[in-house]
Amino acid sequence: MKKDKLSFSEIVAKIKDRISIKEVAEKLDLLHGLTKTGNSLQGDCPTGHASQNHKCFSIVTSENYYHCFNCEAAGDILDLVVLARRTNNYDALRWLVENCTPDLMTDFQSLAANQSPAQSEANKHAILYNLIFEEGKRLLFDPVAKDVLDYLVLDRGYDPALLSKTEFIYWDTEANIRAFLLSKLPGMAQEISSLSLIGGFGDNFRLAIPYRNRRGEITGFLKRAHTKGGFTIHTHTGVRWDSTKGLEKADIFGLNRIKKGEDPLIVVEGYPDATYLPALGLPNIVACGQGVFSEKYLEGLHVRGIRRVVLALDNDGGTGIKNTEAACRLLADTDIQVFVLDPPAMGACKDPDEYVKANGIAAFTALVANAELGSTWMAKRMLTAAKSGTALEREKAIFDCLEYADSLGRVREAEGVLDALTQVLGLTEEVIAEEYKKLQDKKAAERLNDGVVDVARQAQKLIADGQPEQAIKVVQETTSTLQSEFWRSREPEKEKLDDYLVEKRKRDGQRLQGSRIGYELKDFSEIDKVISGLQSGLYIFAADPNIGKTAMMVSLMIDVLRSNPDVSCLFYSMDDSRDAIVNRMLAHLADMMINQVRFKLANPADEAALDTAYAQLNKWFKEGRIDIRESTAHLTMSRIQSEIQMHENRSKLVVFIDGLYNVPVDTDSGSLREENIDRANQVKQIVKLFAIPVIATAEFRKQGRDESNSGKKERTIQDIMESGKYGYNADLIVLLTPKDPDNYGSEAEPIIIADFGKNKLESFRGKMEFKFIRAKSVMAFVAGSTNNP
Fold first, then answer.
1. Beta-carbon contacts of residue 599 (< 8 Å; ≥ 6 apart)
2. Which of 46, 375, 390, 593 has the most CB within a 10 Å radius?
3. 250-370 — its CATH code?
């Protein structure tokens, strides 16, 4: 569903669609010092640091992106405003709206009005924290910070020339920091006095690193002791870390620097590692701190489009290994593929920072490049003790491996774990497969049981709150999803490739050249020829409204039922009621007008014909060959999938979805575009899972003024709403347009052009003509081209 109010990210996205980074830079008065070089504008960084040749800062106009090669500042138009105006993301967005897209001010004000007091306070704190960071970065190279700089250079071995590119800062005393802030922002005295600057170990730390969320806003500071052994504070010895009180770590450290889709993402433990190594040319590195990869980090990784991570945690004995195992398990059922740099591979070095100091950045990069698939690494870990252990340890290892394989989201990786079981422990594939299937069935039954208990609890609460209709809806939707997941787990396992190839060769070898592969279509024999029968696949019939999509669907369904006595049809009507679809079918079967079948008939012959049509529909229903569902039945994509799963004649089933664009999806997609993509993916998943024909209708996008004025522009696949996804997923796409658009509305039986825009089933790419008999809701073939360009 489309949301009424735009979120922060949606407003930013709208601005990015309408204004370039060059225009933003011009409004920020940055262009006068920049020189055009190819596709970029180069000059000094707005932060004001020294710049050799005055070309360290570059705005890449072709990608709407900026980057400073000296201080490593980088980002999009929002980040540029933050950098140039020394502000936070929220105020940067306000500036963009006011100066670039004032028509979005209502949306921004709505966003501002819905801010919680905590969010408002966080925005003010971000402004103050940003000032502290800039001053601390300047002070790092001031004599006051000599001890801190010596620690970084002499003890940690960092190159002083590269430290300016990092986010290490000098952390002044609390009193000095507050005085500095008041000198800069006297109007924020109250906020400055309440700002968190001290952590659990007092005002003892002089080295700090800002912790930023994914948007680059500072949420607090990590403080590091600037002595090798740490501090002794009261009864605590070896204290090396502290932080400002209330530091928020919702995103993994360093995520703000990661570009969307930039992977593999290297995950290390140490914050200093992830702060310094980017200055050595390793930008895609983040830190989880203390080696614990938190579940809360997943959302940020998803937003950044991360698909692969390399875990390179500390080589500190058992802790690094355990943390790596925990991270592998946490990421197992996500869409993020895990690789592992085995900690012992770093030799005597305890972490990546030390390894780079001893061997160089190129050597560490080589280690990362040779990282092992996480599932393989985990299997080896679990099976190591089992090879020489007791019978009890062996059985435990088998169970752990099976459970881990079941948790993996990638089938190939799960099979790799099972293969390791057979190879390491000498068990047969058949035994492992049987044990694995038992575990999967048990897990599926447990999920179903837990889900039923949970939905019953929800329904009881809603009824008690006086919301019985909402309770029914929750039960229907949740039960549909649970059934779908349960039955999917019961699907027979796919035969192995060698067995499949033997069976396929035998099956195809018995089929005569030119014979039909799918179900027969007699009324639409011309379509039958160019697709080799109605095969498993996704068929899309696209048109503008009122062009005859539903008539085509009903006509095709009746043809399938008449021509194939053992085939069943499910018809989902998302636009019309079941009554309207039945009327169309009766008119078609009785060869009468739709308006006739809805009234008492005076002619006995017509009455007899209508009775025959009713009898045929009733016969098909009783035989389990037809059912018609309408949108009022709370249909969703998962419910449709569940009903297909449980259909008695599932192996010989054809599904029709009239108005696919109106079927609700079961995910919180956030936007109409994402919802359409989810819908296209889910309907294709139904086709793949059940190997059946799914025939659906789609609508064209509205033509623009320039297009519609001519009236002659032919529709293409690109005109289908979310055409990219439908175009990719569909096996057949037929575009329906009037032959005579100017007179279409006045014709009783207009001619419809069916353009086969995509056909993966056969080589035909021509056009056909159908007569749309409006009064009877019938599509009848008139003529066709056999051109195969």
1. none
2. 375
3. 3.40.1360.10
Question: Helix (H, G, I), strand (E, B), or coil: what is residue 202?
Answer: strand
Cβ-Cβ contacts under 8 Å for 652 (sequence gap 6 or more): 564, 566, 567, 568
Reported as a single tens digit per residue, the pLDDT across 536-549 is 999 999 998 889 99
Domain 525-784 = CATH 3.10.20.740: no
The residue extents of the domains of the chain are: 1-115, 116-248, 250-370, 380-489, 525-784
**In the numeric block, which tokens belong to residue 243?**
């932080």
SS3 content of the chain, % helix, strand, coil (to 5): 50, 15, 30
Task: Indicate the CATH number for domain 116-248.
Answer: 3.90.980.10
E strand intervals along 574-668: 626-630, 653-658
Query: What is the pairing mode between strands 241-243 and 767-773?
Result: unpaired
Report the phi/psi class of residue 202: left, alpha or beta, with left for phi > 0 and alpha for psi in -120 to 50.
left
What is the edge-to-edge ordering of all strands in the sheet holding 285-287? 285-287, 265-268, 308-311, 337-340, 372-373
- Give the C-alpha distances (Å, rounded to integers) separating 76 from 25, 69, 260, 268, 379: 11, 15, 11, 26, 42
CA distances from 509 to 501, 512, 530, 692 (A): 12, 8, 21, 22
Quote the pTM value: 0.57
Tokens 């039958």 locate to: 528
Q: Do the Cβ atoms of 271 and 220 come closer than 8 Å?
A: no
Stated as kind and residue range, the H or E segment containing 696 is strand 693-699
For residues 735 and 751, give the distance between their C-alpha atoms in angstroms, rounded to a whole number. 13
3-state secondary structure of 772: strand
What is the CB-side half-sphere exposure of residue 585 using CA atoms within 13 A? 29
Which of 262 and 3 is assigned the larger pLDDT? 262
241 — phi, psi (to 5°)? -130, 150
Tell me how crowded residue 86 is: count the other CB atoms within 10 A of its CB: 15
> At CA 343, angle to CA 342 and CA 345, rounded to 5?
70
Token representation of residue 141: 């190279």
CA 688 to chain centroid, in Å, comes to 20
| pLDDT of 441 above 90 | no
**Structure-block tokens of residue 360:** 């160089």
CATH for 1-115, among 3.40.50.300, 1.20.58.340, 3.30.420.10, 3.90.580.10?
3.90.580.10
How far does Cα 288 stand from its chain's mean position?
A: 23
Q: Which residues of 313-334 are buried (b: 16+ CB within 10 A; e: fewer)?
A: bbbeeeebbebbbebbbbbbeb
Please tell me the number of Cα atoms within 13 Å of 414 on its side-chain side. 17
Preceding peptide of 264 cis, ω within 30°? yes
73 burial via Cβ count (<10 Å: 0-12, 13-18, 19+): buried
Tell me, what's the pLDDT at 669? 53
Instruction: Report how far apart the first and last C-alpha atoms of the chain are (Å, whole number).
Output: 41
Instruction: Tell me how far CA of residue 564 lies from CA of 30, 570, 777, in angstroms.
Output: 71, 14, 22
Q: What tokens does 160 get?
A: 């002083």
- What pLDDT digit, counting tens, does each position of 31-83 carry? 888 888 888 899 888 877 767 778 888 998 888 888 887 777 788 898 898 88
Sequence-distant (6+) residues with CB within 8 A of 145 are 139, 170, 206
Dist. CA 305–CA 452, nearest whole Å: 33
DSSP readout, 151-194? Answer: IIIIIS---HHHHTTS--EE---HHHHHHHHHHH-GGGHHHHHH
